Aminopeptidase N
Amino acid sequence: MRPDSTPPTIYRKDYTVPSYLVETVELGFDLDPDRTIVANRITMQHNPASPSRSIVLHGEELDLVELRLNGRALAPTEYKIEGSLLTIPRAPAQVVLEIETLCTPIQNTSLSGLYVSNGSFYTQCEAEGFRRITYFPDRPDVMAKYTVMLRADKARYPVLLSNGNLIESGELDDGRHYAKWEDPFKKPSYLFALVAARLVCQEEHYTLKSGREVLLQVWVEEGNLDKTDYAMQSLKNSIRWDEERFGLELDLDRFMIVAVGDFNMGAMENKGLNIFNTKFVLANPRVATDIDYAGIEAVVGHEYFHNWTGNRVTCRDWFQLSLKEGLTVFRDQEFSADMIGTDSGRAVTRIDQVRTLRQAQFPEDAGPMAHPVRPDSFVEINNFYTVTVYEKGAEVVRMYQTLLGRDGFRKGMDLYFARHDGQAVECDDFRAAMADANGRDLRQFERWYSQAGTPVVSARTRYDAVKRNFDIILSQRCPATAGQPDKLPFHIPVAVGLLDANGKDLPLLLEGGDHPKDATTVVLELKEQEQIFRFRNVDERPVPSILRDFSAPVVLEYDYTDDELLHLYRHDSDAVNRWEAGQRLAMERLLKLTAQVTAHGDAAVLKLDSTFIEAQRALLVDESLDPAFRELALILPSETIIAEQMEVVDPQAIHTARQFMRRTIGAALKTELLAQYRANQTPGAYSPDALSAGKRALKNLCLSYLLVAPEAAELKVAQQQFDNASNMTDRAAALVALIHSGGDAAPYLQAFYQDFENEALVVDKWFAMQAAAPATNVAAVRKLMQHPAFTLKNPNRARSLIFNFTNGNPAQFHAADGSAYAFWAELVIQLDGINPQVAARLARSMDRWRRYAPALQEKMKQALEQVAAQSKLSNDVQEVVSKALAN
Ligand code: TRP
Ligand code: ZN
C-alpha cells in the first residue's frame, strides 16, 4: 500500500460551524464547452457562533482568474490555496466576494459539476460538485439565496434553465442569448442546478389543492416527447399525495424535470429543477417494462418529496445524509404503495423492499464497507450513497411509524417542519420531533443510527396448556462490524400474530399490552437483550407468525418445523410472512442441495421432495391470490441471497442447485404453469397498473419455468410471445427466457437489437440480458465490449454490461481460473480514469471476497491488490479497495 498518498478520513465528531454565513449568491455563466467563465458574487457575514475569522472556500479543477474582497482585488499573498481549499485569513465581518473562474465542461467525464452530455450542458452538485463550478463554502449547512444569469449560443443551447423562477430572458450579440433565474428559497449549494440544452418539453398547468396554479414541465431531447406522459402523471400524483398524506404543498410556481442520458445516479432533487437519468423519465409501452414504469413513479416521487424532506429541511453535514434519504425513500415507498391502493398491493411492494434489503443491504452490513445509517467517518462521501443510508434508513423511519402509528408519525412530521423549516439539521433532530410530538422516550432508538450490522432476533416459544399461556421469548444480538466490536441492544418493534390449527388468526391478549381487544397482530417492543412476552387465553398451541410486515430490518431466527412453515405458507393473513414461509422452505432445500452438489460435483444425485412441490402447486393455482403475490412467492431466493447464508460460498454449486430446483418445479408443474400462462394474458392496450403488471409478472415467471428445459412446444410459446408482444415487458421476458433456455438465442438477440438500436435504454437492456446469461463468460463480455454500441463513458451502458456480469452472474464471475477477477481489476482501473464514482461502485463487487473458498479468495485478493497498487487512484476507489483488504 502507499501510505504517502492515503487520502484523509473525515470524522463526524470533528464538525465545526461555518466561519461565514452566505446571504446571497449571484452567478453569471458564459457557457462554452472548452472554456466556461463563471462570475460569482457572494455576500457573506461572519458567523457569530464561530471563533474563526478565516473565510474557507472549496474549489476543484478551477482556473482562478480574479478574486476581489469588498471591491478590491486580492494579491496572491492575501489568500492561500491548498488542495481544494482557498482560505482568506483575517477577513472583515461583512464581505462581498467576487470570484471569476474558468472550467472545461467538455473534459469533465466524472459527471460531477458542470459537464456536457450529448452536446448540452448539465450540472450535478450533490454531494460536492458545486466546488467544481466555482469557489464556495460548499457544505450543506451554508444556505443562501441564488440569482443566476446564463449566457450561451442560442442555436446550440436554445433552452436555459436554473432553479426557481425565470425573471428575464432575451437576445445578445453573436447569436447568443440569456436567461436570468431567481430562487426565492434559501438552499445549500448541492441543490444548485443549470441546464443549457437543445430540448423540448411536455408542460401542463396544474392546480394545487389550495387553488394556486403551478407550471409543470418535463424536458427531454427531441424525439422523446412520446415518452414523457408517465413521468408527468407521476409528478401530478406525487404533488397530490404529499398534500393529502403529509399536508405539504409545492412551494414554487414552476417545477421542472429534465432527462439526461449521462448521469451517475437515478436523479437529483435540485430545487425546482430536478435532473433525471433518462432511465427514470422515458417510457412508452414499446420500450419500457412494468419495472421501468414502477421505477419512474418511485423516482419522480422520491425527488419531488425531497422538496420538503431534503430541501426545505436539509442536512447539517453529510454524515446526516440518511436524514433526507432514509426519510425520502420511506415517503416514496409509501407513495407507491398508496398508488396501488389495495392491501395485497401494499404487501407486494413491501416484499420487494425486503428482497432489496436481503439482496444488497444485509451483505453491505456484513461486509468491509459496513457503516451505521449515520456514519461516523468517511473518506469519500460519494461512497456513502448506499443501501444502508437509503434503504436501511427508510426501514428506520418506517419503525417510527410502526411504533407510533400513522397518526403519531404524522404528528412527528408536523413538529419536525414546525421546528426546522429553513434549517440544516441532524438525524437526532428528527428523532426528537418524533419523540416530543408523541410524548415518547426514543433515546434507545438512537442505536439504529449509530450501530452498524444487521441485528439477529432469536425467538423461542412455550405453550402451557393448563394455564392457556403462550410465551414468546425474544433475544437479540448484533454481529461485530469494523470499529464496533460490541453492540448494545436495539429498540426493535416485532409485530406478531398467532395462527390456530385452521390457519385463522387468534384474537390476542398480550399480558401488560394495551392493544385493542380484537387485535390479531400486536407489536412487541424488544428493548432488552432478552424479553418474555406472554399471551393469555390461548386455547391451543398456535403457530406464531413473527416479524409480520417485516416490522424491523433484522434476521429472525426461529426453529420452525416444515409443517409449521407449510401452515403459514397456506394460511398466514400477513402476506409478507406468508411469502417468507415459502422463502424459508425454499432456502432450507437450496442449502441442502448446494451442499450435495459441492460434495458430489454434479446434480445427478439431487432430489426435491413432493411436499414442497405440492405447496408450490397449490399456491400457483390459488386464484384468490393476487397474481403479483403468486409470482413473488414462486421466485426462489436469488443466488446472492443463498450465498449470504453459507459459511463458504460455492457459486457454481449454488447455480447448479437452484437450476435443478427450477427445472424440477418446471417439470412437475408443467400443466399448471401453462394454464396460468394462458390465464394471465393481458390483451388490449397496454397499461402499467399493478393488476396488469402482476399478471404479466406471473405469466412471464411461468414462461421462465417452462423454458428451463423446454421441449419444442414451450420454445414455440416463447418465440410467439417474442414475435407478437405488444409491449417491452413481454418482449424482454420472452427474450430472457429464450436466452436462459440454453438454445441458440442469437437470432432473437439480433432481431431485438435491430428493432431498438436507436433506443439507448433498450440497448442497455440488450447488454444487461447477455451479461447475466448463464452461458456468458468473461470472454463473451470482452467480446460484447467490442460492440460499436458499447462505451464505458456512459454510466448506464457501463452498468448494463459490466455490473450485470460482476453482480448478476456469480457463477461466471467466480470462474475457477480467476479470469473474471483480472477483468474486474482492469475495468475498475480503466473506469477510474473516466468516472471515479462509477469505478468505486464496480470496485464493491469484490466486497464479500473473504467468504469464498481459499483458492478463489487468493485470486480475488490478488485482483484487489493489483487495483490498490495503482499510482493514480481516486479517493473513491482507494477507500473501497483498502477497506476490502483491511483486516
Ligand atoms: N440526492 C439524490 C437522490 O437520492 C442522489 C444523487 C443523485 C447523487 N446524483 C448524485 C448522489 C450524484 C451523489 C452523486 O435522489
Ligand atoms: Zn434522495
